[in-house]
Amino acid sequence: MHIHYISEQNSILNHFLAQLRDVNIQKDSMRFRKNIERIGEIMAYELSKILPYKDVEVQTPLGKKQTTVIEDNVVLCSILRAGLALHTGFMNFFDDAENGFVSAARIHGATEILVEYQAAPSFEGKHLLLLDPMLATGYSMVAVFNKLIQQETPKEIHICVVIAAPEGINYLKKHLPDHVHLWVASLDDGLNNDKYIIPGIGDAGDLAYGEKL
Ligand SMILES: O=P(O)(O)OC[C@H]1O[C@H](OP(=O)(O)OP(=O)(O)O)[C@H](O)[C@@H]1O
Ligand SMILES: O=c1cc[nH]c(=O)[nH]1
Ligand SMILES: [Mg+2]
C-alpha cells in the first residue's frame, strides 16, 4: 500500500485538525462539519498532485495558453454517515466527479460491519476515491471495499481518511491490494477497548450529525 501522510509539514491543516479534536470547539457541530469539509479540500488538493494530466489549450480574452487538466474521470465514494462532510470537501475541488454512497454500521461491539445501502456509479477505468474521516480497526473500510470492488476494476484506488489508528492501517495492508493508495491527515496512537481512536476526536458521525438511537 502507498501511504501518504499529509500533516508531516506544518500547514493550516493543523489548525483544522486541532479544532476537530478540541472537546469544547467540537461541540459546535457546524464548525465540526466545516472543518472536516476543509480538510477534505486540502486532501483533494494534495491527491490532485499525483493524478494524470493532459495538455489543453485555453483561449483567454487576449490570447491562447497551453496548460494541463486532470485526464481521467474521478468517482468520489463516501461511507455513511461520517463521510458526508468529507465528501463535500472533495466535491468542492473535483467539480466533475461522479458520486457514490455506501452505508457501514459497526455492530457487535464494532467487531462486525453491516454494509447495506449502496448507490454508486460504474468506476471501471476511473479513479476511485473512498472517503471516511475515521480509520479505527479498518473493518468498515475493508467491508465497503470488498462490496464495491466485486466486478469492476478502477484505474486507481485512493482511500482518504482524516484520523487513522495504526491498527486500521495494518488491517488495510493485510486485506487490500498493494497498489491501493492511503491518504492520512493525522496518525494517532491506537484504539481503546471500545475500538475508538485514541486520542482521536470521539464519534465523528455523532459530532457531525447528532447522536443516534
Ligand atoms: O475502522 P472501523 O473500526 O470500522 O471504524 C471506522 C468507522 O466508524 C465510523 O462510522 P460509524 O460506524 O460510527 O458510523 P456513523 O458514521 O454512522 O456514525 C467511521 O466513520 C468509520 O466508518
Ligand atoms: O474513534 C472512532 C472510531 C470509529 N468511529 C468514530 O467515529 N470514531
Ligand atoms: Mg459513528
UniProtKB/TrEMBL annotation:
GTP-binding in keyword set: yes
Molecular-function GO terms, alphabetical: GTP binding; uracil phosphoribosyltransferase activity
Catalysed reaction equations from the record: UMP + diphosphate = 5-phospho-alpha-D-ribose 1-diphosphate + uracil
The Phosphoribosyltransferase domain, residue ranges: 9-210
Pathway membership, UniProt: Pyrimidine metabolism; UMP biosynthesis via salvage pathway; UMP from uracil: step 1/1
InterPro entries (alphabetical): PRTase-like, PRTase_dom, PyrR_bifunctional
Catalytic EC class: transferase
Stated role: Catalyzes the conversion of uracil and 5-phospho-alpha-D-ribose 1-diphosphate (PRPP) to UMP and diphosphate.
Similarity comment text for this entry: Belongs to the UPRTase family.
Protein name as catalogued: Uracil phosphoribosyltransferase
Organism in which the protein naturally occurs: Paenimyroides marinum
Native organism taxonomy: Bacteria, Pseudomonadati, Bacteroidota, Flavobacteriia, Flavobacteriales
